[in-house]
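Worked example

This section walks through a single chain of length 298. The input is the sequence exactly as stored; nothing has been trimmed or padded.
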Amino acid sequence: MINVLSSAIAQFINAVSSIAKNILENLNVSQYSMFQIAVDILLVAILFYWLIMLIRGTRAVNVILGVVVIVIVFAISRWLQLLALGWLLDRLLTVTLVALPVIFQQELRRGLEKLGRTKFFMAQEAKEIDFIRSEVIGTCFEMSKKKIGALIVFCGEVNLKEYIDTGILLSSRISKELLLSIFSTASPLHDGAVIIDENKIVAAGCVLPHSFKEEYSHRFGTRHKAALGLSETTDARIFVISEQRGTVSYVVDGHIEEDITPERAQTLLTEILTPKKRQGHGRKIANKLLNRHKTTHV
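Given that input, the structure is written out below as tokens.
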């Protein structure tokens, strides 16, 4: 067994040396200047950095790690000449590579959108964000006055498809009138949640998972528990309008901020809707603001 491992390690080292030698030979044979080579390497490094930042904190990382594991096991099977395992992994790896564009559909779409955000489009996007913020705030606090219960979910990086599929697909532009119609007690969708992604109402009447933490068992009703349950397993941000108290609450990361004001809602919506260059940093700021304004009364 030791001889087999030693032979596999030696083959791996020889393969790496051969690849490095071929790269150096190609660079020497080519007529590229040092400036061209430096620019080429810099652009490739920027591309890889952009890809890493794009998928950081998403479930795509786990998919990539799974593919890396398959590649490593496949390489080991080739070195050890394991025919059956090698044949099986060869087919599995081919299918996986073909399926990657489908698996990363959401990440690829968001990445292309980020590339298209020039100053001109950013100005137009700022107007759209201002309109959406005004419509959502107007909806929340009008329903608060009328004591109409509601759940408004804003998607984060985690895909909410499993919850979207429980509701009615809309893919509609956000408007106060539409939201009020959905949550009207006469509407068959009023008991579920509205899910918003990429500045559109994706679905309505969606069923969310409930939180079963003991500290929430007596303090909050069904809507608040549903919002807390979703926030405990995803990075979604949720606004909850209480039908009994007529208050507006904000839920994120398993924490609830009760009885927020229109000014506070405006700050939160600005943070939610404004594209962030650094998602992790934005989340830290969100948690600090939440802890600062969090209240304990029911």
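What to look for: The radius of gyration is 25 Å.
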